[in-house]
Write the structure tokens for this entry.
Amino acid sequence: MDLFLQLCVNGLSMGAVYALFALGFGLLFATTSVLNFAHGMFATFACIVAYATMQATGVPFIVAAVGAIAVAAAMGLALDAVAFAPLRRRNAGLLGPLMTSVGVWIALLAVAEMAIGQDARPLSAGGFESTRFALGGVSVRWLDVVAVASCAVIAVLLHLLLRRSRVGLAIRAVGWNERSALVAGVSSRRIFALIAVLSAVIAAIAGLLDGLLTGAISPQLGDELLIVGFAVAIVGGVGDIRGSVIAGFAIGLIEVLSVQYLGAEFRNAATFGLLLIFLVLRPSGIFGRAEKVRA
Amino acid sequence: MSWSFWQSTFDFALVYGLFALAVYVNLAAGLLSFAAVPVGALTGFLAAQLAEIFALPLAVLILIGAAVGVAASVVIHLLLIRLESHYLAMATLALVLVGQVLILNLPDITGGVRGRTVDFAVETWQSLLVVIIIALILARLRGSALWLSFNAIRADADVAASLGIRRVRAQRISFALAGAIAGIAGVLLAGALQFIGPETYGVHLVFVVLPAAVLGGTYHWLGPLVGALLLQSIPGLFETVTPLFVQVINGVVILLIVLFLPGGVVSDDWEKLYRRLLARIKPEDTPAQSEVTR
């Protein structure tokens, strides 16, 4: 029983990371209808920048992390300006931004490999990641608590932003119909920039947590998160906050439990099996609404 | 670079071009679907298994691939019929991922994580012949009522419906046609590589095939073939550069073409780009142009 609970703790903290990733991806999709395949790169580069900063200057992790998140925010703005904004002006539909994000992803993945090579590098928060406390028969890392708490806090903040603030109203207006929002006086340029930054920052936080939880970073870190995050987004309903959080935790738990009780090769099988079931029976996800849009 | 390198580039350009053609056929009907990849995986591993047991000639394997491809694609369309646009794209992308997991977990047929050898080979002339035949079929279809209905649906599905064009039926046909092409492509890829595993028909294939289709151009069947050739040639053209930097160039090329030639390399965007550049340099010299909206 203790093993089961221990696994649940691990599953919940990984699930928190997946949920965060799905939140960032879903936010961008729900508001701009863009499937950003380069989303994983924010996580990857946040880890690389944090790692490199600590290696070069020896500052504590938290300082490096703040810097890394700032870099990710800048990357988000740059990506939007280069890859998505020109296409918005042209009303390019689904395929245009998707393709530019693919091009950026291919290029950035190569840059990441040039930066730290193909092998994994260790990421450490000065020992914080190993501190634990006992809860009943289970040993819980403080890091697990931080991960789950971060997810909860960010989800709540995002919900409050989107549903209870003027900025959130503007975001939803732009997501619904950019032209109408412009007529109502919303600066869509600023809103798109804000969304780009938010999406990138959330992804960066998820990436840093993933790096600490697994103790290692690699160029593929972001993409592995993106694949599972993508599944979480679909199962939960893309763009839906509750859905992403619930699905994230569920998939985190499923993943950890199936590795333990079914075998390591089933790690992705259970996740994608669930994904397939949802796609066939309820493609809009737990909480999603499938809209009718043309390709 | 040596001749054998360019021949290998050409071989893979042909096979990836076929996959890209499958994506193109769906795009022509207004659907973005990555189903070509898992369908190709199915036929590729099936062909490898059949060749091991029965020693069938390549032509038979190709025909089986086409038939299985059609069947699988129609089933996929039936399952995902309620999905539109983005959701269809995401669902078919998820199918790619699910396909990879299935490949990993059926080691008897697929060799599991280690992959399996393929007992039949595909020569360049065979791939070329297949591509030419399919190109001729698509060229013939281009002026047909079916393709006109595709164009109508792509332009405006509701108006098309009001003209009596049945969208779901036309899109199912596009899925079936794309499935046949993808099924053949899967068999050819297995024969070209001689060794296939879970990574062969994975997400990486999607990101080779999709850029080929889009960069080449989505308005003419020649587009995806040109796109595949272009993208496969990049490592050869930049042979003095490190492989990682070649990938950067790859990504940048994709980005630039989507931004400046959105219709692809095989389109009239060159002319439009020329006019835009002309307008910037010498605004008074640009002739008045009535733009016919596509």
Remarks:
- The first strand of chain B starts at residue 116 and ends at 117.
- Chain B has a mean pLDDT of 87.
